[in-house]
Amino acid sequence: MVQPTTIREALLRASSFLQEHGCRDPRFEAELLLRHVLDMERASFLASLPDPMPDGAAERFQALCERRAAQEPLQYVIGTQEFFGREFLVRPGVLIPRPETEILIEKVLQYADRMWTKESELAAVDIGTGSGAIALTLASERPLWAVSTVDLSTDAIEIARDNAKRLGLGDKVRFLHGDLLEPLLLHGEQVDVLVSNPPYIPSSDVLELDREVKEYEPLLALDGGEDGLNCYRRLCEALPAVLKEQALVAFEVGIHQAQDVARLMMASGVIDETAIVPDLAGIDRIVVGVRKQKS
Ligand code: GLN
């Protein structure tokens, strides 16, 4: 790219540069990257198109466009992703929150509101929290809940902590380091609400994922073992030890896994009923399990 003069020229050049590198929506992505560099909302950006590029902006913009041209996910290049109306920091080391995971949040809130009152001070845990999108959203939506997170990746814990601070939840959410439910089992802790979006891609399918996903997003957050169900097996085995007498469990699952995961929940012996919820593409995506209070 030659040194651009106006913001409009920079935008147009970047757009064709990204197009040449196979970017699917070059004009849109060039605008997002440029607005990120200039720190501008859309309206002021559009009004500034005839202005000259500020000092240093061209170089920074070019560096970002080159990362994107190498197929690094746009969210890592910009450094954020919106989830359930809030902005989360993301970088390599955590999975980029996906829109289908918002359905997990909706279902947890909906079921919890049916099972308890909104004033209940529930203990909730998010297993494999990554950027913290699920746990921090629940903590924001239900300020009375005591939310804990577990992750095996210290990188992820650091990012989730940064996100907690940015959302004003710094002291409210607990970050535990460990493998799935081990930190809870170790301390004999029990919860009312257990949620997880564990790695669920079957190992042999990982190589077939989009290049953006498999080359940049953490394998630890994607690879679910031979049939993709390893984490669900381990989570469900531990349900009798970690669930309180009345409890709600909700997992995100991969394509064709919902029935198996619902069976694993029932096989734990402590879940009374399950429900399967599809995503917007019609893929069964969320499995909910309810443990009813014994009267
Ligand atoms: N939804 C992610 C993907 O398809 C996978 C997330 C996961 O394994 N939990 O790339």
From TrEMBL:
Binding-site positions, S-adenosyl-L-methionine: G128, T129, G130, S131, G132, D151, N197
GO biological process, one term: methylation
Residues annotated to bind substrate: N197, P198, P199, Y200
tRNA-binding listed as a keyword: no
Gene Ontology MF term list: nucleic acid binding; peptide chain release factor N(5)-glutamine methyltransferase activity
Stretches of the chain forming a coiled coil according to its record: none
One Pfam family cited in the UniProt record for this chain: MTS
Keywords: Methyltransferase, S-adenosyl-L-methionine, Transferase
UniProt EC number: 2.1.1.297
Catalytic reactions on record: L-glutaminyl-[peptide chain release factor] + S-adenosyl-L-methionine = N(5)-methyl-L-glutaminyl-[peptide chain release factor] + S-adenosyl-L-homocysteine + H(+)
Function: Methylates the class 1 translation termination release factors RF1/PrfA and RF2/PrfB on the glutamine residue of the universally conserved GGQ motif.
Name of the molecule in the record: Release factor glutamine methyltransferase
Taxonomic classification: Bacteria, Bacillati, Bacillota, Bacilli, Bacillales
Annotated gene: prmC
